[in-house]
Amino acid sequence: MNCANELLTLALKLPPNERAYLAQQILLTLEPEQECSIEEHEAAWNAELQARMQQVDDGTIALSDWREAIERIRQAIARGPAA
After folding, report:
1. Is the whole model's pTM more than 0.70, yes or no?
2. CA atoms within 13 A on the CB side of 48
3. Which of 20, 72, 74, 76 lies at a 20 to 30 A Cα distance from 82?
4. What Cα–Cα distance (Å) separates residue 36 from each residue in 1, 7, 30, 41, 50?
């Protein structure tokens, strides 16, 4: 088992709030050039959510059942990274 899988196995044993914190901290490292505070990230996410809700209200976005979306995500992960 590689290091990432070992870490994942350990992380999955954490309570949900600790997993969420860990995931957030890891995600923040993927955009080091954008040194934003948690409040700035939350504000950006809230703005994105508001924009998406407006698209739903306007009918300008296609919606799908969450089960179908999860299946598409799983298939994409199984295919691996895009070339």
Report:
1. no
2. 6
3. 20
4. 34, 26, 12, 6, 20
